[in-house]
Amino acid sequence: MSDDFLTKTGLHIDDLNKIRLLEPDLSNAAEQLKQECNNFSEKMSSFKDFIESVVDTLEQLSRLVDSERLRAMASRSALTFLGSQKQAENQQMQILIQEKTIELQRLQTELAALVSVEQQQREHLEKLNAPI
Q: Where is coiled-coil annotated (predicted)?
């Protein structure tokens, strides 16, 4: 009967015979909920730490990728410059070859003319040295 009176007034007696404002079932559920909330908070904290480490790793990877990209661009630029420089040198060599070929043809023509002149002069000397 005293339990009914206490219940009507909003008071309850727990298993340890202590007076409580909440029903024992509600008190147990609240304690369990509190424990689950603490567990959830710990898991969220752990998840936050994990995400921060993933973000840090991705940022490091991003910096590495940017560094390699810049290095690749510099290498490509240097290679393009060397290619154009080799092409310019090749063109200069082709021009020099053409100039030397023209000079060779001129010298061959001059040699042929001089050989002809020499031949004519020998013939002329033979005529002059020949007995009359």
A: 90-117
Q: How far apart are CA 86 and CA 95, in angstroms?
A: 14
Alpha-carbon dihedral sign for residues 75, 81, 84, 86:
negative
Say which DSSP state 20 is in.
E
Give me the residues paired with residue 13 across strands.
19
- Give bridge partners of residue 20 from the DSSP assignment: 12
8-state DSSP, 1: -
Instruction: Indicate if the pLDDT at residue 35 is higher than 70.
Output: yes
pTM above 0.90, yes or no: no
As a three-state string, the secondary structure of 80-103 is: HHHHHHHHHHHHHHHHHHHHHHHH
Query: What are the phi and psi torsion angles at 19 (to 5°)?
Result: -80, 130
What pLDDT shows up at residue 28? 79
Copy the structure tokens of residue 67.
Answer: 């560094």
Mean pLDDT for all residues in the chain: 89
> Do 23 and 12 contact (CB within 8 A), yes or no?
yes
DSSP-derived secondary structure letter, 4 = H
Instruction: Report whether 27 contacts 20 (CB < 8 A).
Output: yes
